[in-house]
Amino acid sequence: METNGVSRRDFIRASGLAGTALCLGFYFPANAKKAQLVSANAAEATGFEFNAWMHIGTDGKITLTDHRAEMGQGSYQSVPQIIAEELEVDLKDIDVVFAKGDPKKYGSQITGGSSTIRGSYKRLLMLGATARQMLIMAAAAKWNAPVADCYAQAGQVIHRPTGNKLHYGELVADASKLTPPKDVPLKPMSDYKLIRKPLKKLDTPMKTNGEAIFGLDKRLPGMLFASVERNPRLRGKLVSFDSTAALKVPGVKQVFKVQMMVFNTTRDGVVVLADSTWAAMQGRKALKVTWDETGFEHVNTVDIYKSHQELLKTKEGLSVKKQGNPDAVLDKPGKKLDVIYETPYQSHAAMEPLNCIAHYQSDKIEIWGPIQAPDWVQGDISDKFKMPKEKVVVNMTFLGGGFGRKAFLDYPQEAVAISKQAGVPVQVVWTREDDIKQGPYRAGISYRGQGAIENGAITALKFKMAGQNIDHWSGPGRGKPNGSTTEGFLNPYFESIKNISFADVPYEMPLPNMWWRSVYASTNGFAYESFINEMALLAGKDQLSFRREYLKDERCQRLIDRMEEVSGWKARKKNEGYGVAITECFDTTVGQVVKVSRNAAGKIKIDKVWAVMDCGWYVNPDIIKAQVEGSVLMALGAATTHEITFKNGLVEQNNFYDYLMPRITDMPTVEVHIMENTADAGGVGEPALPPFAPALTDAIFDLTGKRIRKLPFNMNAV
Amino acid sequence: MILTVNGQKREVNADPNMPLLWVIRDILGLTGTKFGCGAAQCGACTVHLNGEAVRSCVTKVNRAAGQEIVTIEGLSASNNHPLQLAWNELSVPQCGYCQSGQIMSAAVLLRENPHPTDQDIDDAMAGNICRCGTYQRVREAIHKAAAMPMEGAKL
């Protein structure tokens, strides 16, 4: 670990030999199933690749490494909040630093799949508890007292019989020489003082006075700023460019061709390097560039959805999951439904446009940027630039939003290529137009739902999806069905409905596509939960009690109880504008009730959103509430205000004036309820997004009788 | 040209057409003011020019010469403007990127209208986009700041 210019090796030696700090971390052996907890001493003795996840100095100051990115979802708060609980310290005594990319030290670092807490919390608890135990053991030895007579509180070890106290700083030298004890017991949930409390976030102050350093804010001595004109067709070659005028722009230093890999395709660009971002942008405007436009389709959005429809009507696709025989039921006469839902292409459009600093040197590559997966970037840059992994240093900054886009490898790679050729550190800055027009996007997906009702109950459900598959685009998944076809759909339905099938009808298109907040659940959820609402109507039942008949799992039943209770569901009147949906995503189930009405001008207005989340074990209820509020707003935008469309192979949208974002005036009141239980932790950052669109369109149906099956739709035109 | 930024006179050698945003960020090194769209659509670059909220991404630097510029770094002496205190109290920011602009817009609102209604807040803040969806808390925090004493804070 390199902190303040001290190399890892020096750091370990200092802490190990002099015993001036207690450092604990995890070791991830290449093929081992479980990470091992080690101390700095053990690491040094055995030559382990050591990572100090936790460093306690002789002054008692604690430094924790956040092994994940902070992009608004709260890892900078929740990671220390977990460790402080078991370590028995105050949050104010903790400093947080971001990890560099290194899977050997931190395991997987990808901040995605809402995995930071659900993937690490048990390890983090154990880390805090083990350090506390070592400090207690060191104190007991000093006092020559039994360990059982000592306990930790507020950064001190206390000897119960005498009331003697030693603070952690006085104990680290001795504690660092101990072998970490195994299987230290963890606190029961009922003893938690910090976990499950709505503590204020540690990173708020620095985000209210301009101090927080995002990728775009990082500066290096001698750095140049870069703006790149890339092929507007998202792939393909450059024929020629004329840089004469660009080089005359004051501040412009260099202009040259650059190539970027996007999965298995390449995209040419022309980069302008200058001494300010603005000069680089001006130079870029002065370029004359000719692109090779041959060799790939010039797609139109309207044709994409026509193809989806055709495929869904004529092909059975690749089976993903099947039980019973839905086709046999659907072939019989009776009450049936057969409808198509469409979801749009979406840009991530994080508020911080993509950017990355790279400094290529002959023996080392260093990167700074808003990056969701530093370990992936390290591996990718090492491969592509033939540099040993340990010589590729990926530094993290705060991320101004990510939503999946900043877990992609294209922009760091392009920055390295530019720095290599320029011979200086460069910061590549994407404009908002680059961010909107260059992808990759969440793919637009279409769904066909077929179902049968007999005696008020579902007798068959059949779903097919058609749309670009991330795995097909990236290469290795070709020929295989999309494994995420059922994502978002609640598992208990499979227990209670005899005949169900899910199939993926492969649709390939050379448009770069990738994951977007809540991934396939964001589109699947709209189709599947809308369909359940339509089936409830066909069965003549209300949407919540209909679901109660199928979701017999106890946690689901309680979730439905809560939804009914908080939204006043039973007291509502028909056609008053209530809608509902429940989806599962990353081990968390979220149910939402949306209430709409018409305002004085006759336009649809969202009166309220009630969201009930069951994410099992959790850290900070206020972060959960914030994530749900944010997920609802992001889902509202994707459902009603923006989509990416293609015309003759070009993206039609440019900036926030034609890729419209919901604003404060559009923000509905969101009331969040969290289910209390002791189940394992589920995700928090994404699962509240999928149920919003189907609950909203269901509410609009309840109010107006109009069923919306295509997103986005214009709320003002309903 | 001479710029007065956060009460300090700074001599700047810049193309007079360069937007104030890039002078502030790339020449003066004050990175709290953010680039979001370059087209006055999102408000992330909001600063005060003679006390008015302007979008620095479309304000040419020569328009600001000789006038009072305040950025987020200069809003208060020690992060203690009522809005900054309220923001902290309610954990408003998520990613935080748009928040400098949100706070700078809200500061002008509160100066002109010390006790705004929800509608006043919506009207004044509609130019600031937040992709994380912190709007509900922005509203609440402005009300909270409005209820705090303004003493010691400069606007």
From TrEMBL, chain A:
GO MF terms, alphabetically ordered: oxidoreductase activity
Coiled-coil annotated spans: none
InterPro entries: Ald_Oxase/Xan_DH_a/b, AldOxase/xan_DH_MoCoBD1, AldOxase/xan_DH_MoCoBD2, AldOxase/xan_DH_Mopterin-bd_sf, N-heterocyclic_Hydroxylase, OxRdtase_Mopterin-bd_su_IorB, TAT_signal, TAT_signal_bac_arc
Pfam families named in the record: MoCoBD_1, MoCoBD_2
Aldehyde oxidase/xanthine dehydrogenase a/b hammerhead domain mapped to chain residues: 209-295
UniProt protein name: Xanthine dehydrogenase family protein molybdopterin-binding subunit
Organism: Mucilaginibacter psychrotolerans
Lineage: Bacteria, Pseudomonadati, Bacteroidota, Sphingobacteriia, Sphingobacteriales
From TrEMBL, chain B:
InterPro entries assigned: 2Fe-2S-bd, 2Fe-2S-bd_dom_sf, 2Fe-2S_ferredoxin-like_sf, 2Fe-2S_ferredoxin-type, 2Fe2S_fd_BS, Beta-grasp_dom_sf, Diverse_Oxidoreductases
Name this protein carries in UniProt: (2Fe-2S)-binding protein
Transmembrane segments: none
Family matches, as PANTHER family: BLR6218 PROTEIN (PTHR44379:SF2), OXIDOREDUCTASE WITH IRON-SULFUR SUBUNIT (PTHR44379)
One matching Pfam family: Fer2_2
Single GO molecular function: metal ion binding
Domain 2Fe-2S ferredoxin-type positions: 1-75
Keywords, comma-separated and alphabetical: 2Fe-2S, Iron, Iron-sulfur, Metal-binding, Oxidoreductase
Organism: Mucilaginibacter psychrotolerans
SUPFAM superfamilies registered for this protein in UniProt: 2Fe-2S ferredoxin-like, CO dehydrogenase ISP C-domain like
